[in-house]
Amino acid sequence: MLTATAVLATALPAAAAQVDAAVAIQQQGRLEARGAAVTVPTRVMCQNGATGSLWVQVTQNVRGELAIGEKYTPSVPCTGEFHKVDVTVVSRTKAFRQGVAFTSASLNVYLPPDNSSTVEEEREMMLVR
């Protein structure tokens, strides 16, 4: 006869370990095509052997209206070292302008067979030409 603890232990999966990962948004983004897009420089790090994807969003108040864009990058390098990843975000509303914008980045990392991690950063970024 199995004890309740033994039954519970076999019914629950082992806790997944955290995967090493980090994302950092740089201080300045570069306006492209007269503000139709902005290149957002990021630095990403994910554990060697993992796979990573990156999502970046930029929001800016332009004369009382919001310029908003986002970009999904399905694959980033995962070597255990930091890598520079430039993400070009196209506005889906109105043109970005020089000045401050709010930027967020989310790095999702998966390490087989069942370990995953998500790290995020949010910051104000200066958009320049």
From TrEMBL:
UniProt superkingdom: Bacteria
Signal peptide (residue range): 1-16
Keyword terms of this UniProt record: Signal
Protein name per Swiss-Prot or TrEMBL: Secreted protein
Organism of provenance: Lentzea aerocolonigenes (Lechevalieria aerocolonigenes)
